[in-house]
């Protein structure tokens, strides 16, 4: 099992900053208001003076990133922009994991499992609440499939459980072993390596394995081995609970949501590859897993994790609010 050496050397987990900061009750409220401005400036995401335990789940919340993702770049820029702090400000204990930026779901899933084992050891809590974005939603399913005893709940956000049409297009149009495929794979893996290095990790990269994991064919193979909470119909909901694990999903179908976000035009382009409503990279029905909380928020694929830099639609629920509401949902279920 887990050895202390493994924790230090082989496993990368970020205990999100600000845990436990700024939670005040009763008589502390007045003092809290007085110093609030200062704290807001220094630790805005962790400050709270009202209903500060609404996201205080029984088990830690673990956030698992998508393809080409990370925990933090330069130790500062969060993948889950402002989300860990938002959850912590409402009492949650949050961990942000990091796996290979580009690799097969099983490879990323095993890396994530090692980190979950570490979190369980660190916290003394027997289980975790897993939340995965994009490819991370497949990773968390893998962990829950092979070690359901460690998982209280699985939630996917914008995950292509039945494949992404853009991945299908790329896989279909680049011949196996061709020069074009080799060049694209080289650049994809180089990008993954650079992102990993900037976030302080050197996990192995395999661009073609990542692409295969996100195609319709690749996810069908994965779903056959790990079928928990996958809808039986093309656009239905899956089982609410399997092997004692609660399953949820949500996703968006907005694409151009904020004129100031430079990533919106790129997602507008990729959305053209899809035959159904989508978030720019994942189709509405493909995102379904377990209980579907909602599948058409006015959010694109990056809005779902409050990117870029919090530039999301101002006319719909803020992504941070959705995460806080979900933590409250899990808390109310005793998870
Ligand atoms: Ca955005």
Portion in helices: 25-40%
Helix/strand order, N-terminal first: HEHEEEHEHEHEHHHHEEHEH
Number of helical segments?
11
Find the CATH topology.
Rossmann fold
The figure for the number of domains is 1
So, the CATH homologous superfamily? Alpha/Beta hydrolase fold, catalytic domain
| Structural class designation | alpha/beta
Mean pLDDT: 87
Per CATH, the class reads: Alpha Beta
**What is the CATH architecture assignment?**
3-Layer(aba) Sandwich
Q: What is the alpha-carbon Rg in Å? A: 19 Å
Bound molecules: calcium ion
| Outline type | globular
Q: Into which percentage range does the β-strand content fall?
A: 5-15%
Description:
This protein has one domain (2-9, 49-332): Alpha/Beta hydrolase fold, catalytic domain (Rossmann fold, 3-Layer(aba) Sandwich). The radius of gyration is 19 Å and the shape is globular. The protein has helices at 4-9, 28-43, 83-88, 105-123, 135-146, 165-173, 179-198, 207-213, 216-225, 264-270, 319-332; strands spanning 13-15, 61-64, 72-73, 77-78, 94-97, 128-133, 151-157, 241-242, 245-252, 291-297. By secondary structure, the chain is α/β, with parallel strands linked by helices. Helix 4 crosses helix 5 (135-146). The strands form two sheets. Strands 1, 2, 5, 6, 7, 8, 9 and 10 form an eight-stranded mixed beta sheet that branches. A two-stranded antiparallel ribbon has the order 3-4. The chain starts with a helix and ends with a helix. Calcium ion binds next to loops.
Reconstruct the topology from this structure.
Blueprint: H1 4-9, E1 13-15, H2 28-43, E2 61-64, E3 72-73, E4 77-78, H3 83-88, E5 94-97, H4 105-123, E6 128-133, H5 135-146, E7 151-157, H6 165-173, H7 179-198, H8 207-213, H9 216-225, E8 241-242, E9 245-252, H10 264-270, E10 291-297, H11 319-332
Parallel strand pairs: 2-5, 2-6, 6-7, 7-9, 9-10
Antiparallel strand pairs: 1-5, 3-4, 8-9
């Amino acid at each position: 099992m887990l050895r202390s050496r493994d924790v230090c050397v082989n496993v990368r987990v970020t205990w999100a900053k600000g845990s436990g900061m700024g939670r005040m009750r009763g008589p502390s409220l007045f003092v809290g208001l007085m110093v609030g401005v200062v704290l807001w400036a220094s630790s805005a995401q962790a400050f709270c003076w009202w209903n500060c335990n609404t996201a205080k789940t029984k088990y830690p919340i673990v956030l698992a990133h998508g393809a080409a993702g990370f925990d933090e770049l330069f130790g500062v820029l969060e993948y889950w922009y402002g989300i860990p702090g938002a959850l912590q400000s409402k009492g949650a204990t949050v961990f942000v994991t990091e796996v290979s930026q580009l690799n097969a779901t099983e490879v990323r899933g095993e890396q994530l499992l090692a980190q979950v084992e570490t979190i369980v050891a660190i916290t003394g809590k027997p289980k975790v609440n897993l939340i995965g974005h994009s490819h991370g939603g497949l990773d968390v399913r893998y962990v829950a499939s092979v070690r359901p005893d460690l998982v209280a709940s699985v939630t996917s956000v914008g995950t292509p459980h039945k494949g992404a049409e853009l991945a299908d297009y790329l896989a279909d149009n680049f011949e196996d072993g061709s020069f074009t495929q080799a060049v694209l794979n080289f650049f994809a893996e180089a990008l993954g390596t650079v992102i990993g290095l900037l976030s302080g990790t050197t996990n192995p990269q395999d661009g073609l394995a990542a692409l295969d994991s996100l195609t319709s064919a690749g996810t069908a193979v994965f779903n056959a081995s790990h079928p928990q909470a996958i809808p039986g119909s093309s656009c239905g909901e899956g089982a609410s609970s399997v092997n004692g694990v609660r399953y949820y999903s949500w996703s968006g179908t907005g694409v151009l949501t904020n004129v100031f976000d430079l990533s919106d035009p790129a997602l507008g382009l990729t959305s053209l590859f899809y035959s159904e409503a989508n978030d720019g990279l994942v189709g509405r029905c493909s995102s379904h897993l377990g209980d579907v909380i909602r599948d058409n928020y006015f959010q694109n694929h990056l809005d779902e994790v409050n990117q870029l830099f919090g530039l999301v639609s101002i006319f719909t629920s803020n992504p941070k609010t959705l995460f806080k509401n979900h933590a409250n949902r899990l808390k109310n279920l005793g998870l």
